[in-house]
Write a structure and sequence with these properties.
Largest sheet: 4 strands, antiparallel
Structural class: alpha+beta
Strand order of the largest sheet: 2-1-7-6
CATH architecture of the domain at 39-114: Sandwich
CATH superfamily of the domain at 39-114: N-utilization substance G protein NusG, insert domain
Shape: rod-shaped
CATH topology of the domain at 39-114: mini-chromosome maintenance (MCM) complex, domain 2
Helix content: 10-25%
CATH class of the domain at 39-114: Mainly Beta
Order of helices and strands: HEEEEEHEE
Strand content: 25-35%
Distance between the termini: 46 Å
Length: 127
């Protein structure tokens, strides 16, 4: 029975360990989470605001029914107050992923999380 030392040269083992560690680190970086979103776009009837997602902001948007309040903090954005009757926009909760959105249609306010160019994530997969 031959031992592994007859097949490996002195630097083979460190190279194998380094390649395995590099593969693991790259795999973790690629598959570790969601697409990083970089900005929040808020559209009202008369104005559009753009903020970085990591901002600490409270934006009051005057809509057709009254004021809609949007808070951006902790890398999340959410509609926290709106004059509409259904309150579906508030029920959408905090948004943080690229492509997520919430809207208060009666008040004509739209909130979108958007990544920087080139940050398109996988939208769907089919087999």
């Amino acid at each position: 029975m031959k031992t592994m030392s007859k097949y490996l040269k002195p630097l083979d083992l460190p190279v194998i360990i380094l390649a395995s560690a590099l593969t693991l680190v790259i795999g973790v970086m690629v598959y570790s989470g969601d697409t990083i979103a970089s900005r929040v776009i808020i559209r009202g009837p008369e104005k559009t605001w753009v903020y970085p997602l990591n901002a600490e902001e409270r934006v009051i948007v005057s809509g057709s029914m009254g004021e809609t309040v949007i808070e951006i903090n902790k890398n999340r954005a959410a509609i926290v107050s709106s004059p509409c009757s259904g309150q579906t926009c508030i029920g959408a909760g905090a948004l943080r992923k690229n492509g997520q959105w919430a809207a208060c249609l009666p008040n004509r306010v739209f909130l979108l999380i958007e990544g920087a160019e080139g940050e398109d994530g996988v939208d769907a997969t089919s087999w």
